Every structure is written in structure tokens, then in C-alpha cells.
Amino acid sequence: xxxxxxxxxxxxxxxxxxxxxxxxxxxxxxxxxxxxxxxxxxxxxxxxxxxxxxxxxxxxxxxxxxxxxxxxxxxxxxxxxxxxxxxxxxxxxxxxxxxxxxxxxxxxxxxxxxxxxxxxxxxxxxxxxxxxxxxxxxxxxxxxxxxxxxxxxxxxxxxxxxxxxxxxxxxxxxxxxxxxxxxxxxxxxxxxxxxxxxxxxxxxxxxxxxxxxxxxxxxxxxxxxxxx
Length: 228
What we know:
Layout: H1 24-30, E1 33-35, E2 41-45, E3 50-52, E4 55-57, E5 63-73, E6 76-87, E7 96-97, E8 102-104, E9 115-117, E10 126-134, E11 140-151, H2 160-219
InterPro entries: Ig-like_dom, Ig-like_dom_sf, Ig-like_fold, Ig_sub, Ig_V-set, Myelin_P0-rel
Transmembrane segments: 163-190
Region (Disordered): 205-228
């Protein structure tokens, strides 16, 4: 059998369909993520020392990760500290501090880049932004905000509603337990009464049988043989 080859002009072919765009979810799953915790705010007493938490995460790792903390001063972002983390498992060095009473306490063990604010004042109140940029992810960056509220004294939480609800629930449980105890006691008494009635009935039946047997023996006459 002979093989026939056909020459096809590529210009005559229909254009190839365009490739589908990349899914944003795929990139975001590998993107850098900064986090200030599940509760990104705090109410602290004036003069106390507070922790501003922040951690970073990246599925593909980091290289020369740049991070900083910034304070929002009425719309003007003031840099608090900054540094670069060379790679995974390495601590940043050095860390530049631009604000008084600030201490960097981060560690590479848990991807931690948190800071401490010592002896806070009312001027420290506001929003703090934890920012990071990872060159390994083509400069992917992300930020998270932590809000600090400074007060003269901590507010006393009004637990009146909680106490009322707890009392109502406790009262309902106690009432239910009392009802169950009374119910069980009544059932026990009824059972004993029924059992006593059965015993009395058996005793009466036994006495009646004995009386009938005795009466029958007294009334029966002996048979006399007939004379021939």
C-alpha cells in the first residue's frame, strides 16, 4: 500500500480558539496572606503594654519578603518598623524601628512579625497596618489591619441579661427535675398499692379456700354399709 502525503497551507486553517483565562482562585491560593488574628482589634488600658499580632503565609514559600508596620495618623500613614526576611526559617535582620516604645518580637518559627507597644498613651490609639510583599510571587503583596482603642478604665460588662437567661434555664431544669421526681414517686406509690392489693387478694382467696375445705369436711357424713 502506498502512503499519500498532503501539503496543507497553515493560512487556510481556522484560527485556534483562545486559551481560557487563568482562574483567580488558583493564584490566590498561592498568594501571600497577612493576618492580624481572628479578633483584629483590642481595647487596652492607658499606660499598659499591648501586643499587635501579625503573621504571614505563602504556599510557595518566600524569598526576600519585605514587611512593615504602619500607623494611620488621620489619613497619613506613618511607618512604625520595617525589615526583610531572606527566606523561610530565617529571622529578619536588621529591623528598623521608627517609633518610640516599639519592640519587634517576631520569630521565624511561626512566621510571626508581631510588635509590642510599651506604655501606650491615647496618641497610640488608631489603626495599624501590617504589610508584606513577596518577590518570589512576582511582587505579590497583602496587608491586614489591627485597631487599638485606648481607655482610662476597662468597661464593666453588664451581665444582667446573661444572669436572667441563666436563672431562667436553671429554674426550668430544676422544675423538670422536680416533676420527674414527683412522677417517679407517684408511680412508686401506685405500684406499692397495686402490689398490696394483689397480696390481700391472694390472702383472701387462700382463706376462702381453707374455709370451704373445713366446711366440706364437717358436713360430709360417713357411708354406712347396708345390712343383708
